[in-house]
Amino acid sequence: MAEASAFHGRTMGCLATTHSKAIHKLDIPSLDWPIARFPQYKYPLEEHTRENAEEDKKCLEIVEDLIHKFNGAGKPVAGIVIEPIQAEGGDNHASPEFFQKLQQIAKRTGAALLIDEVQTGGGPTGKFWGHEHFNLPEAPDVVTFSKKMLTGGYYFKEEFMPSLGYRIYNTWMGDPAKVIMLEEVIRVIRRDLLLETVQESGDVLMKGLLEFEKKYPQHINSTRGRGTFIAFNGTNTSKRDSIVGRLKLKGIHAGGCGEKAVRIRPALIFQPHHANIFLDRLEKVLCEL
Amino acid sequence: MAEASAFHGRTMGCLATTHSKAIHKLDIPSLDWPIARFPQYKYPLEEHTRENAEEDKKCLEIVEDLIHKFNGAGKPVAGIVIEPIQAEGGDNHASPEFFQKLQQIAKRTGAALLIDEVQTGGGPTGKFWGHEHFNLPEAPDVVTFSKKMLTGGYYFKEEFMPSLGYRIYNTWMGDPAKVIMLEEVIRVIRRDLLLETVQESGDVLMKGLLEFEKKYPQHINSTRGRGTFIAFNGTNTSKRDSIVGRLKLKGIHAGGCGEKAVRIRPALIFQPHHANIFLDRLEKVLCEL
User: What ipTM describes this predicted complex?
Assistant: First the structure.
C-alpha cells in the first residue's frame, strides 16, 4: 500500500509505490497494489484546524478500507509505505496524529509500517529522522534512508530479520567505504551541532516566508516545513516556475515539486545569515513579478 | 525474456529475470515474462561437438518460439537478458555461435539484446568484456556491469537513449567518486597488463585442472572457463561441497555454483605462481577424498 503523489524510487518494485510524476512510470510494468491518499492540508494550519482534522480522518478511513478490501480479495496488504513529508509530490505534510493513527491501523491489520526517509533522514527537518516529529509510541517497523546518509539502506525491527541467510544479500553489502564516510558525517553533525543550526536557519526562513505570503498574497501562499525542509506554493504552476527560474538568475537554486510548490533543500551547514540572503533575493523576485 | 538458471539481480524487476536459487525469489511478486533455456553442454567439448551443437540449436528454437508465442499473445518481448557465462546457475558456457545466432533472433524479432556482464565484465575472462569472446558482428544493445567495475551501470546503443529527460535519473547519477576510483582501476589494468596476466594464469589453471580430471575422474570433471573465470564439477553435490570445504581449510576460498560446480574467481592480480599454489592444494584435497 502506498499513497497518491508518493515517490519511493525508480526500480520496479519501488516504482509500483511511486505516484508523483507520470513520466517516471511510463513503459514500466507495475503491480496491483492499493494506493491510498496522502492528506492535502489547507494553510495556514491554525486557520483550518477543523478541515485538516477532517482530511486526516478521511485519509485514514481510505487506508483502512483499502486494506480490508484487498485482504478480503485474497491480496493481503503486507505493508504500508509512506514518506514523513511527501516531497516529490509537493512537500505535503501530515499531522503527528495522522501518523500515530496510521501506525495503529498498521498494527491492527497486521501490515508493516515502512517510513521512507530518503529525503527527510539525516537532519534536514531539524531532527535526525523526520518521523521523530510524530511522537510515535513505538518506532516504525522499517525505515529506509539514502541521500544525506550517503548510501542506500534501511533499519528494521528485530522480528523483520529474515529467518534464512542469503535472503538479503548483495556484492557490496552496504558499501563499507560509504559507511566509513557516513560515520564522519555523523561525527561532524554532532560536533558542529548542525541539527540546531538547521532549526535556527529554518526558523529564520519560516518567519520570513510567512511575512512574504502576507505581503505578496498575489504570488505565494501555504508556507510549511520542518527545520529547513520548507516549501511554499506559487499561486499557480506558471507563477511557481517563474519564481524558480528567477531565483536561479539571482544565484539561488530552489526546486519545484508537486503542482505549484517551491521547495527549499539547503545543506545542513546552511546558517541563519544564508537564510537572510535567500529571503533578500526571493523578495527581489517577488517584487519583479 | 530470460533463461532458466540465470541470475540478474535481486531488486524486483531484476528478480523477475533471475532463476538460479529458489530462495532468492521467495515471497517476492514476479511477472509473466518468458524463461528460455541456457545451453547445457557436455564436456570435454571436443568429444561432444555434435551433441553440443544440437543443444545450441534446441535452445535457440525455444527462444524464438517463446518470443513468437508471447508476441502473439499480446505480451510482446521487448528484450532478451543473458549472461555471457551463466555464473550463479553453475558456470554454464555457450558457444560464440550460440550468441551470434541469439543476436540474429533478437534483431529479427525486434527484441533488444542485453548482456549482463556483472560477473564477467572488467577482465576476469581475459578480455575486458565477456562478450568479446563471441565475435558478434555488432555490439549488444545494452551491457550491464558492476563488481569489478566498482559501481553499477550499463552502456547502450544510441537508439536506446531515452527520448525524454528524467526517464533515467537518481540522486548520485553513477556515483562520481566511484567513477574516479574506476578510472584508476582501469589505468592499473592497462599499466600492469592484467588482462595478459589473467590469460596466463587461466592457462595454468586450465591445464592443471584438465590433468586432474583425467587423474581423478572419480571426483571431478567438466572443467571449463575463459581467463581465470573457471569452474569444474564435482561428481555430485556432496563431493562438490566437500571440495569447497576442504579447500577452505587449506586457505583457498572457492565458491560453489549451480548443482555441483566449484567456481574459481581470483582477482585480476592473480599470477601463474598463485595458480600453482591453488593446484597444489586442490590436488592434496583430491587425494584426501
Answer: 0.78
